[in-house]
Amino acid sequence: xxxxxxxxxxISSFSFSAENIELSKAPVDLxxxxxxxxGARTFTNYCLNCHSAKxxxxxxxxxxxxxxxxxxxxxxxxxxxxxxxxxVNMSMKDSKKWFGxxxxxxxxxxxxxxxxxxxxxMRGFYRDPARPMGWNNTVYVNSAMPHILWELxxxxxxxxxxxxxxxxxxxxxxxxxxxxMIVDLTNYLVYMSEPDQLKRKxxxxxxxxxxxxxxxxxxxxxxxxxxxxx
Length: 230
Known about the structure:
By secondary structure, the protein is mostly helical. Helix content is 49%, strand content 11%. The longest helix has 30 residues, at 197-226.
């Protein structure tokens, strides 16, 4: 009985906290290889400096249209081999010392957090002098992560009256360009969380089709058996 009470309280608290977060809809399209390729480049150029993706191999990027040569020349920066997983050289001890907490592995973050959460989180950073890194986030309050893309997005501040973000300074990208880059990054993180999900879904249609055919044959076989029985 105690076990069920704990589970209920956990789900209730999670639901309550989720209701207070207004998430934007992420336009995910796993069939868009160009978007996935751009997202992979953003991930390796910015995220992979601190966050690992230990369940993802560089070679899997060939499934989204990148050649082995492109992967080696443009995405492998630490002497890794194309068959290696996406790991980082920074130790957990050092990362905890510098950031206060070790950056989590992002292999399956899209499955645990959801695409909308990632998309909203990467657009929700704002300047906060009270934080050690000088940044805070509307989706994940008091996040230890600094805004690594601030030079591209620019700086935002949070209006205490409206509790909405306002532009403080411009970045290298305008709002439309930055949002497009975050769409690509989110798209890639969703793909990385399960690289074979499109194949799995396609196989599911074949399985359903086979079962429907089997059902049709079974019904007709039953009718044939019982046709002469009154």
